[in-house]
Amino acid sequence: QVQLVESGGGLVQTGGSLRLSCAASRIIFSYNTMGWYRQAPGKQRDWVASITTIGYTDYADSVKGRFTISRENGENMVYLQMNSLKPEDTAVYYCNSRRGTQEYWGQGTQVTVSS
Questions:
Q1: 65: helix, coil or strand?
Q2: Which residues make Cβ contacts (< 8 Å) with residue 112, sequence separation at least 6?
Q3: Tens of pLDDT along 35-83?
Q4: CA nearest 85: which of 19, 8, 36?
Q5: If we measure between CA atoms, which residue out of 43, 51, 52 comes closest to residue 90?
Q6: What stretches of 10-109 show up as alpha helix (H) in DSSP?
């Protein structure tokens, strides 16, 4: 079964931290670039961060220096550590798995940052 399951979202105050987790099926994890996207109400889904199979990372400018993406290859897990959260980080966060033209999405987890 192919699936991505996110967890770890919640309500946090400005300046706080959250750690998102994504459990992936091995078949869409081992050879795939993993990423996080987010979608705020009324806005398009935006890319946040990604990590390749060998650990190269990349971040959107809006989160660079505050968010850290990582993967645990033995556990088929990908994480997003979010620090210094701002109200504008409020969104549904989605886990993404990509290889070539194949792409998979999780169901999303809500992150709300109160001011």
A1: coil
A2: 10, 11, 12, 90
A3: 999 999 999 999 999 999 999 999 999 999 999 999 999 999 999 999 9
A4: 19
A5: 43
A6: none
Which pair of tokens denotes residue 3? 């699936």
Distance CA 59, CA 37 (A): 11
How far is it between the farthest Cα atoms of the chain?
40
Alpha-carbon distance of 23 to 76, in angstroms, equals 6
Locus of tokens 């399951």: 5
Residue 27: the pLDDT is 87
Angle value at C-alpha 22, between 115 and 112, nearest 5 degrees: 10
The residues, any chain, with a CB within 8 Å of residue 24's CB and separated by 6 or more, are: 3, 4, 5, 34, 76, 77, 78, 95, 97
Taking residue 74's Cβ as centre, other Cβ atoms within 10 Å add up to: 6
